[in-house]
Amino acid sequence: MNRNAFGGTNLLTMQRPRTKRLFILFGRSILAVLSLAVVLVLYAEGYVIWYFEYGLGLPTESQLAALPTTGPLCAANPGSSYVPLSEIPPLVRKAVVASEDRDFYERTSIGPLARLASNIVAGRRPGNSSIIHAVSRQCLWTLVPECCKGPNLEWQFGTQVFTGRIERTFTRDRILEAYLNNAYLGRGAYGAADAATAYFGKSLASLDIDEIALLLTRFRMPMTSRHDSEWRNLMLDRMLAAGLIDQAQATAAKAAPLSLIAGPLRKP
């Protein structure tokens, strides 16, 4: 035992082992708390993944694959006209993709977390395909009407999971066909074919370039506006930039007067 100059025990020497034991005990306590927190987080994460993957009762990919391969993907709007993609004018199909979702055909079918990571690495804005997301929301109401009635997060996450399943199950052409036939475009019209009749009194196949451009604006703004000619011209500029029309066609279409017929302005 160490003694000081006065023959007593060195108190500093005696306190060191005690302090060391306290630090060890404190460190072990912190480690235990952190370990418990990690376990709880992993448990919560596992429950959330299970709940949104299976607990909501969303159709599985195999159930989605059993849906008809032709006609309405989901009968979101019974009574509306349904036009196969092959009968929709190529300019309409290409212009919708160029305007709404330029990466629609190039985007790979991966999970939401993997997509988020790839977007961060590539410096892209996070998010799903707007076309696929729209179709998933339309189909969710009809295929699983009892789903996602809880908090807003349940609807948001449920839609994300369902979007991924639709994206991995169906071809891009099938999804685009559903989008062009189900989207609400104003005047009580669902789908491009009904909208062509509601706005111009024509069939979809007989629309002129300026009418197609105006129709495309309805996918984002399904209401008549006093700025319709401006929105139409902006859409024509996008179609020109995408190489879908040439400068002469764009100039002629911008000079054309709006040819809207009178019609009811009903909300969906």
UniProtKB/TrEMBL annotation:
It comes from the Bacteria. The keyword Transferase applies. InterPro entries: Glyco_trans_51, Glycosyltr_51/Transpeptidase, Lysozyme-like_dom_sf, PBP_transglycosylase. SUPFAM superfamilies: Lysozyme-like. One of its GO terms (biological process) is peptidoglycan biosynthetic process. Pathway: Cell wall biogenesis; peptidoglycan biosynthesis. The keyword Transmembrane helix applies. GO terms for cellular component: outer membrane-bounded periplasmic space. Pfam families: Transgly (PF00912). Gene3D superfamilies: Biosynthetic peptidoglycan transglycosylase-like (1.10.3810.10). Keywords: Membrane, Transferase, Transmembrane, Transmembrane helix. This is Putative penicillin-binding protein 1A. It comes from Bradyrhizobium oligotrophicum S58. The lineage of its organism: Bacteria, Pseudomonadati, Pseudomonadota, Alphaproteobacteria, Hyphomicrobiales.
